[in-house]
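Review box. Two proteins, two foldings.
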Amino acid sequence: MKVAVIGGGAAGFFAAISAKTHHPKTDVQLFEKSSKLLSKVLVSGGGRCNVTHACYSGKELSKNYPRGEKFLKQAFKEFQVEDTIRWFGSQGVELKKEDDGRMFPTTNNSSTIANALMNRAQELGVSVHLSSPINSIEPQNEGFLLKSKIGVQSFDKVIVASGGSPKRSGLLWLENLGHDIIDPVPSLFTFNMPHESIIKLMGVSVSKARLRIRNTKLEVSAPLLVTHWGMSGPAVLKLSAFGAIDLANVGYNFNVQVNWLDTTKESELRTEIEKQGLTKEQKKVSNRNPFNLPSRLWEFLLSRSQIPEDKRWLDLSKKELNRLVNTLTNDDYKVEGKTTFKEEFVTAGGVDLTNVDVESMQSKKLPGIYFCGEVMDIDGVTGGFNFQAAWTTGWIAGKLKPA
């Protein structure tokens, strides 16, 4: 049997390894259109590679995918986080868990992961072709004709692991083979706030803030980072993932409400201020920061509430106190555009999951074609989830099971 794998990223490599593991006598050839292999693996996690996330329940794990939750919940029954840890362990790669659940190689070097994949593929006899885009796929009575720079070859099965495409045109070849395509839009991006003065606080972070997109149900509690262009950090990235389609529809122009005290409600904050006796204190408001906010942020929020720095707590007027409470729990910022999150480009959209058999990853439209990774309408939040989806779908696709 001859199998072509299109794409030399995480999903493609894992699918090729899986195919050779389950079908040792198969001729597996991997085609990568660029001159580099596993490029996203190498840049992920600041060059450390966030391999997966320490979430061992398939049901809980699947909740981290804005698109593909039900599909992956089923797929994780076949290959999940423990299987990923076990597989890399079998290649001599130990993974460690960080406090937030992200998992990295103990070497803190993404090359460890890339080398493990490339070495195993080489050991198994996978043929790798670099700078070899597939120019066309032609279905035959038995198998497929693939045209690349090394000529026209016949293959029995084709695994498509070509990754996400920023434009629909990049998925046209799959549409021409009869597949339904969900229009791709960016996911995992940061918020640009060019006209908001908060950007002066770049580098300031809050361990947990509650963010909500105005006029939507999109809401999340997570760490928040202020940048020189706006806001980033897990809270923003999670919001951008779950709101990818809604935010694209409004042209990335919207308002985000920030509760700097996470889930604390306005009424609860008033009670807390009363309980702490703050309004009876002689200390200056700028010197008495009762909410453990970064000092630069606290000063900024006081200014935003029109409270002079030298004002004492006990001298605060009712209006000033109301403004402060409102700013802390109901701050509002105008977002005007987005910035892609580092080099870890992720898209929502791709091959419609109704076209794919979850048990085998085989196309329901064209048997003999299999899908894995981001080319499908699957994407996760940041934290190792996108790689886990790549390992899972790649492993299943490589089994080459009939639908």
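Next protein.
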Amino acid sequence: MKKNNLWKAIGICFLVFVILSWIIPSGSFTNGVLTKNATEPLGFFDILRYPIVTASTSLFVLTAFVILLIGGFYGVLNQTGVYANIVEKVSDKFKKNGAIFLAITIFLFALLSSLTALTLPLFIMVPFFVAVILKLGYNKIVALLSTVGAILVGNMGSTYGFNVNGYITYFFGTGINDTIVSRILFFLVATNVLIGFVLFLSEKQKSNATTGKKNAKKDTAVEIPLYENHVVAKKSMLPMIIISIFMIVLALVSMYNWEIGLGVDVFNNMHTSITEFQISGYPIFANIIGTVDPLGYWSSYELAIILFVATMLIAWIYDVKGKEKWQSFLTGVKTMVPVAIYAIAANILFLLMNSSSTGATFFHTIADFLMQLTNGKFNVFSFGILSAFGGIFYNDFPYLINALYDPITTLYTNYGFIGMLMQMIHGLVMLIAPTSVILVAGLKYLDISYTEWFKNIWKYLLLAFLVIVIFIVLMLLLG
């Protein structure tokens, strides 16, 4: 039952979508006015076809491929014997101060997520921090909340993340620093509430273990995914640490759109200077490097290359050769195959919402209904519900904005406030929705059932929702 729990959650969302497609007509917006069409019901063959289409769509396959490469990366790290040494040393250092490590982990993931909104590159770090947290004796829920949960909270409180605030700026014509004070304050409050909540859970876990309660879990005995306790203390840890940090920094820098997001064009100018450099009229560097976009425009394709190169470089430096190298790489990949499959499955609704050739969807009809409840005037409550529905259907925030920018820019004017409201509600939904790709990947990675996650997260969801309400009220009162 536990193993199929997450599949059931994803399947229920899919079936609800199918039912709604039979009931609610599709529609599209033009200048804020809905053009309503007939219903576009999904039939039997559609139910069978769309999961296959999702599994063969290049965008989702690429995400799954990166997840597999993360597994291969850690598989090779384990083979060196140095990775286990790093995990052991870090866990020993914080053995008596586990709460400090949890707080550092949460703040680090949340901060990087808030600044970049790049969830997939940040997921590369999750296995390491999970290994340390589990080594410290905390359970899997604490480990997931401290890593994946922190990434999602960082998105919810995004400050300069291009995939959140950059698109708000792009679609609504606002400035990247509009409402920045409110966003920073919200990020700090939401993150600190998460830290307090995780520390509360961790203390509760220790209390249960100490008193020998029936339901206490001995997670210290649980096998840690993508980790082998194979220590070779004689080898230096420094090359592995430097390469790993450089890989993460390069991924975050190269995948953040500096030009559009912050108006920084240094990477574009650098790329132009290199590619246009010629010797006797011959573009030597352009031909040697090949086709490559400027830093800031890299995607998951380049992320896959970065991961693979880093993996092979570490294998070379630590003398992991031939059969051992590929066996360890494939062992890690094999571990992440189920995670990759679930990550693809979480995108079924997202594919369905973007499969219409005309752009008409029943979500537009739902949006029009909620907005017209108040005669087209902006209402926080109805728009909050709309953003929550949108979060379930559109797990990628820019697509939610794209679906609603027409009526928003036609009917309303307070774009900065609306953008922040949408990002907070969407981020909150991603903490619980079975369509949230990184959440689903994290749940499968740690083999946590959806029910178990919900039982442990619902209190934080209420606290975060209360924080959102308070910030909305304060922003309305302060103008």
